[in-house]
Structure formats: C-alpha cells, structure tokens
Amino acid sequence: MARPSGADGILDGRGVATADFDGDGRLDLAINNNNSQPTFYMNRLTAGNWMRLELVGDSGNRDAVGAKIRLTVADKTLTRWVEAGSGYAAQSAFPVHFGLGSAEWIDNVEITWPSGESVQITGADLGINRMVRIEESGGMSVAATEVVATESDSAGG
Amino acid sequence: MTTRQKVSWLIICPILLLIILVPWALHGLAEKDQEHAQFYNTGKTINGFLSSYCKGFEAAVVDGDPTKLTAFYSDRYRTPDRGRWVWGPETMESGAAVSHRRLEGEQEYTVAELSAETQDYLDSFAGLDRNWCKIDLIETIELEQSAVLTVKLIADGRDLAGRFFQDRNFVRWHLVNEATPGEAYVWKIVRDEPVEGVRVAGERTGLVEMNPTDLGIDFRHQRDARLDMKQFRDDLKFGVIQHASGGISAADYDQDGRPDLLFLDGQQIRLYRNVETTVEGAVRFTDVTSEAGLNGIGQTHVGLFADFDNDGDRDLFLGRYLAPNKLLENDGRGVFADVSAEMGVDVTVPSTSATLLDFDRDGFLDIYLAVNGHAFEALPRLPFFAQNGRPNRLFRNNSGEGFVDVTEASGVGDVGWSLAVASADVDGDGWTDLAVANDFGRKNLYRNNRDGSFSEIAKEAGVLDFSGGMGLTFGDFDDDGWVDMYTSNINSNQRWFGEDMTVGQYIRNVVRTRWIFTDFLEYFQLYRLVGNDWVELGQQIGEGNSLFKNSGGGEGQIAFEELKDSHTGRAGWGWSVNFFDVDNDTDLDLYAANGWISNTPGTDL
To answer: Which of A95, B73, B192, B352 gets the highest tally of CB atoms within 10 A of its CB?
Structure first.
C-alpha cells in the first residue's frame, strides 16, 4: 500500500513514530533516516471518525504505561495499550488513538489502569472526533488544545 | 548416574565424536571446497542474470518491446498447461485500487504466447519509475547446470489513468545454463510458473510527504564518527553498527496537547517543539534543543520521555552507544537537568533501544535497555546464534529516587546482539512481559513471574523467530483482546549464504578453525532450542518480517501462531515497525520502515 498512498520513501529508515502532528484526527508518520534528513508523511487519507484518549495515572505511573483500553464501537471491541518504546528505538505519542469508521458514537470504554483497577465510561460522555484526557483520580476533560473535527474529510469514509 | 556424571558424559561424548570425525572431515575438505566454489559461481551468475533481466524489464517498458524480456527465455522455453496470466477485477482497499493477477485457461506456453502476454502487460504501463528483481526462494540447484527459484519482480509505475501503482509479481523460474562446458554461464528460462501478482494503484494523495524544513525541522541525521569504518581503525571490529542509529520520539514532552519530536543520532540529538497547528492541517516545529539543555549530547540511539518520578512532568531517558546513558529531569518548564549519576543510570554499554514498563507494579516506570555487542571488542560469533553480545539491562525505578540494576535477579540479561525491545502483557495477567529482537539470533520472550523475576519462554510460545531481528512491536490486530506481535527481520535475496551447501561450508570452516571447541556452549544451547532442525535455520534466516497471532493460551500458557500467509513478510530490510490505524477504519494497520501493509476488514493482514 505504500506507493499508492505515497508513503514509499527510499531513504534508509530507522525509527518510526506515529502521532497526529497537525491535530486533524489522522495519525501521521515521522521517520528518522540514517545519515539523511527525516521523512514526514502527513495523513490526508479519507479517514473515518476517531477518538483519542490521554490517560493520567494516579495510583500507578503517571503516564499510565501498561494501561489497557477496551473500546466498544459498532458491535466491535478494540483493545489498545498505553506503551512507551517499541519498534526500533522509537516512541510514538502517548495518547491512545482509535479509528471509529463511520460510527457516530462509542458504546463504551473500559480502562484497566496499571494498578489493576478498572473503570467503565459510557460513550455518550466521551463524544467522538476529539481527544479526551482521563485521570485515574476521577477527572475527565476534553483536551484543552484545539481539536479539529474531520467531518468534512470523513464524508467519504 | 549422578547428575554430575551425566553432565560429564554430555560434554565428553561429542568431543570423542569430534576426534573421530575431524580427520575424516579434513580429508573431504578439498573436494568440498571445489563444490562450494561451483555453488558460489552458480549463485553469483544467477544474480547477474536477474540483474540483467531487471534492466531488460526497464527497456521493455520504455520501448514497449516484449523481446527485451523474451530474450531471457530459452528457445526451448515451454510450459505445459500454463494458462494466460491476466489481471482480475479491481477492488478498493484503504483508498487504493487493488487487482490480482490470475491464470486463465490451460494452454501450453511457448515464446509466442509469452510474447503476447508480455506485450499486454507492458501496455498497462504509461511509465516506469523504478523496478527491482530479487530472489524470493531458491528451490533446487544443480551446480552450474540448472536451478528452480521463485523471483519477485517489483515495479513502480504509472498507469494509463495517470495513477501511481506498484506491481509485485512472483514467478517460479526454471533456469538452465545453456553454455558449453568450460565457457561463461548463459542462463535461460526454460519454464515459468506464475505464483502471485498484485497491483495496488492510487493517486498518492493519502500520505503526503512534507519537506521537513517547511515544518521548521532542519535536523539531518549524522552517524557516530567513532564508528566510521572508512577511517581504518585496527580496534573497530563491528563498525557496521554505525548504520544502526536513528531513534525517534513523538511524545508530547511539554504536555500542551501537541506531539513534539526528538531525533537521536551520533553527533547531536535535537528536540523540536510542536508550536502551532492550524485548522488547515499545517504544523510548525521549532528547535528547542538548546533552551531545553540538550546541547552536547551525541552517540545516542534511543530517547524516551516519561514521568519517571511521578511529579507531573515528562523526563527523558537516553540510551547511548558506548557513552554513559542519561536521565534528564524536566523542571516542569521544559528544561532538563542531568541527574544520570545520582539516579544510577549512567552505565556505558552499547545501548541500542529501550522500552518502559512498570514490571513490579510499584507505580514507577522501570527501564529495559537493549544492548548490542561491543563494536571495539567483538564480532558476532555464530552468524545465526550470536551469544557474545553484552547483556540487556533492567533498571528498577526505586520510587523515583534512583534506579537499581536488577538484570541478574530478574533474569532478562539477554546476551544476544539485541537491537530492539518492547513490552506488553502477553498473557493477560496484568503484569507486563518483555520481548527482545536480536540481530544474528532469535527473539526472546520474558514472561513476568510477578515476583521480580522473568522466565524466558520464546521456544514454548513459538516465537524464537531466528533471523537478523531489528524491530518488534505489539498490538491486537485481530481484535480478540490478546496482544499480537510483529517483528522486523532481514529479508535477503542472498539466500546462497543460508542454503544447505553453505551451511555445509560453514561446518567445514568450523571444523578447520576449531570454533566448535570455543563455541561449544552456544551449539549446545542451540541444539536444545531447535534440535535437529538447526540445519534449516539457514533457510529461515532471511525470510523477512514475521507476524505472530496471540490466541490467548489461558492461565499459565502463552501460544503464538506465526501467520505465514499474511503478506507482511516481504517488507524489505526491516527496521522500525508500528501498528496503527492509518485510515480510522477501526482496524490496526502496519507500517514497516521500507514497507506498508494494510489490514482490510474481515481479512488477514
């Protein structure tokens, strides 16, 4: 899929990190290339809806590394983990990103914190196409940063 | 027998056997060397043939002339019941048009039929940008006479509708050397069997490559000058490691909601703060290396941001290659202070990669460090099972007040030439486990015993994955709730070095140099891991990336299954690999540095 999408650079790629650098709800790629300048791929794919969760630990480590998130959307449960360091000498952005396809709402999110405690959040409290910061101590807030909805982009997807 | 006696016999028996075998083996060496030379020349000239074919392909597209390709076929070319290789219908997947080639009919093929088919294929090109021709699999070789091998023919072209496409054609060739004995080799294809062909086409508007300088990033990776092989240094044994550096971090170090970028390299690491994003999707970075206090730091392979002392800001760990590792504490305003020495992480080892985890669940993040071999002291001994690297290290975070090296007590001091590590809870027990990718070796999977120690279970879990391991990542791509694993490995077309004949030559060298005595322990370990299958390792090494599905073994068990047909193996020379949902369709996709593999709903990758 690299060539039709455009991500088929021929440099000597090493570490690869994914993050939504431009805040448009689609994960972009940054690649450190040995002995060369880095490569950036800004994601302009016709993409579906999305949800991004930034977890703040309290009883466990503050970055919530090791936390498990199970998100149920359109009869499907997606499982992701907070991690720091994988691939090859690479660290992607902390917030856990979920694509939602054409779904307009999330049914449910279950977070299992590194301590083992788990919490359920109903989708209605989260919305979609935004980053939500969830604190283990009980707080939850839509990210203070400007989060750009991708409705116009997602019309086809 | 006592255990001690048993152990003695385990060692004495093979040595006795060797004393008997060595003179016999030496006797046959000269003859075998001759055979190996023939083998080498066969391989070399077939590679030459393939490279000429590749140039012929380019000429054939440019001139629209199939004879530029049929010239590589013998006049005797004939494939009974072959059928015509045509394009199937196009389907859309992740914004790209995908079509597969299929065989139609059962007619016998001679050069005439092949020429017509080739003409049709060439007509589907409006242009060709690049093409590659590689050996995918060697099936049989008759020295200097014939060979059967599968080749992969990759072409980046543009189609008549102006779209950009990539073709990946796999064909089995039956090659015959048509030269008269004693003359230079003349390889020709006498029979061919199409295996698989796929074209993916798109507008190249999905992932748009940006010039880094337009985003405010003027970083250019530079290698570590100490490891420069061009300047002859007597004491530099493994200078190739110079090419390995190039870590990256996209963590939001200042927690303003915008991901920042840290680039690691041999000369000077650079930190860029993401300062502006606009509704139009523009992004602007600014170099904050100096104001963040990161000047003068080179020789760094990996950098990871995390809040190591749980004080609310993200600190920075740097894993450096034969330079003291560093821990830099964030003062809460994005300025970092070097606390390496008092925190006890300033060890000097050949660090290559790292992962963070709270292995003892005390609420503080620990550091697991991948450590390679020492470039100034050693070369990897045993190309497929090198055990003379420096041990990986596990540093336990003592409540944010300091780190303690618990490598020995935890049992995770992998002595392979480690290049990558990752952490995940593979058995779902709530305790994070560890995995290691070793160059010139195998994967290690360390299961967390929940008492500060780990057990190495790669063999039982089915993830030994012998190869030149370079990257490793976890993610649940099949949405069954269990974390799966994807590894990046060398995918080499130079399989000549891995086939039986070469393994034979290797063994002869081992006998000759008496390596068998110095490396006996490694051979013994290897035998315990793979038994008599070890001679097949040569074939496994070089197969490329591997995708392992975790089905959830239940309490006390971990079972991964390698998905051989997932189309994720041939990603080139793999380094970093990532699972992420690129098109927000809910499925995890894979990006492999030098490859791209998408996951379509309801199918395997």
So the answer is: B352
